[in-house]
Amino acid sequence: MTEQSHSIELTDPRALRAYAHPTRMTLVGLLRKSGPFTATKAAELTGESVASCSYHLRILAKYGLVEQAPGGKGREKPWRATARFTEWPDRSEDAAVAQAADALSAAVTEHYFQRVLKALENRHALPEEWREAEQFGDTLLHLTPEELTGLGQRIDELLRPYEEREAEPALRPEGARPVGILRIAFVDRESDSDAGEA
């Protein structure tokens, strides 16, 4: 068993396709936040059957995303995530890798927005200070590739001081809650007057 690393990079098309399954993404996310836990606990958290969770955990283990954790009794073995983050190529000369990576990116985007929709559905139950603090909106900027890269780096720098709190609960100030921050920046072809030139 290894300690959880910062990130795992998937480059095998089979691994990319395996991780693109919504239940598997959910299981890895739950293990990162609340693990280790058994397939039985996974079933309680996801609403899937124990057999289904066990199967998906074994597939994830095959590609190094999860592993069995110490402890447990009999067949009730706990699982844990092997890394805090999953990375995959933005582009590849290998067509199979490129297709699988694009499919995973699409699946992750859909997963993100399902989480956002669920948050919006339950927003009424939040205290007023949290409803006012939450952010929903968009901005259209005209940037060069270098400027967009630099903007991403600056956002990383802004978030970095808060990242330690994930692994170290003692660093969380009173009243802190888990907050999902999505970063999606894309060329907006609908607003792009130069789209015909690309």
TrEMBL record:
Residues in a coiled coil are none
Q: Which domain of life is it from?
A: Bacteria
Query: Which Pfam families does the record associate with it?
Result: HTH_20
InterPro entries, per the entry = ArsR-like_HTH, WH-like_DNA-bd_sf, WH_DNA-bd_sf
CDD domains for the chain: HTH_ARSR
Quote the protein name from its UniProt record: ArsR family transcriptional regulator
> What is the species of this protein?
Streptomyces showdoensis
